Amino acid sequence: MISRRTVLKSGGAAAAFAMVGAPSILRAADTVKVGLSIPITGLQAILGETLLNCYKLAAAELNAANGIGGRQVELFIEDNQTTTKGAIDKARKLINEDKVDVIMGTIISPERSATLSVTSKAKKLFFYPTNFEGGECNRYFVATGPIPMQQVDPMMPWVAENLGKTIYIMASDYAWPQKMTEAITAAYEKAGGKIVGADYYPFGTTDFGPAFQKIKSLKPDVVWSMVVGNDAVTQLKQYRSFDIKQPLIAPLDEVFNKDALPAGVAAGTYAPQPYWMALDNPVNKKFISSFREKFGQEKMVNGIGEAGYNGLHLYALAAEKAGSLKDDNVLAALPTIEFDAPQGKIRVDATNNHTLCHSYVGKAAADGIGYEIVKDFGTITPVTPYCKV
To answer: Mean pLDDT throughout 10-14?
Structure first.
């Protein structure tokens, strides 16, 4: 198990100078305590390191300037082990023992739901950075990653026009792929397409042969995979070994492709994401440059990490505007601020605490690592019939 506390300092003199003129409520303590629940081990450890590093980068940037209202950012890092029990235990520790001001992190749905079960009762702010299936709503829950309608709804007419009119879905058996399948089906049928099959596999599956046999039998125009984590490595290797020719849409990114997959395996695959490293804007170029300067020139970043980075910056801006770290005060200020993120300008919707995210379709390059952006749908407002805060 990993339990660590990281204090990121920009220098005593700078910090002392920053304190001058800071709102008194923000000067009441030495640091702003940010609790991080990260899957450093387990199914999603592949992505946990990058998410953690993006939080570290955001904290370092804040501390090199004014911190948050003159207070340095202190990270309390806990490994939730990609388990519900781990997520619950770590959330309780962060709130009850470490007395953090805010909790951020987690990747897959079970981690998130377990963490939310603790933070909601404690009325403690929880910022979630990962692609989110929706359906959960709480005043103290902030989603900085996209929900299905932000990824799927804009993309499906493009899929029907450019890739084909029939899709077969294979996915890990948990909430996010299930809700994504519902959204894909509704949006694709509206665009004139048809889902010809959908099969779900438990975590730890080692043989995806039945799905590939079904693909050969059904002959869909497109295969959409939502197999995640370590299982996605197995699935993609087998996908290539079966020599399936259909275009593949999969929840891959530069980090996963480089660190987990054999060279070239992801080449030609598509994915809808709010962020790609290929985005050509000054903020993204600085983000990538700063990340690599801090963690290594060969390191890649992804949408989950970028959404985590954005979340800490949004929290900082809201706390400074509120002149307070009280959860309700930060929440009240949050929809009134905007952050110039690597993906483009973002803000949080006051009606549901979901972020207005950008939506891009990326296609993996021949090296199977980087992506070119083949379609930009702009900023998508989150529509959440299940949530009003």
So the answer is: 37
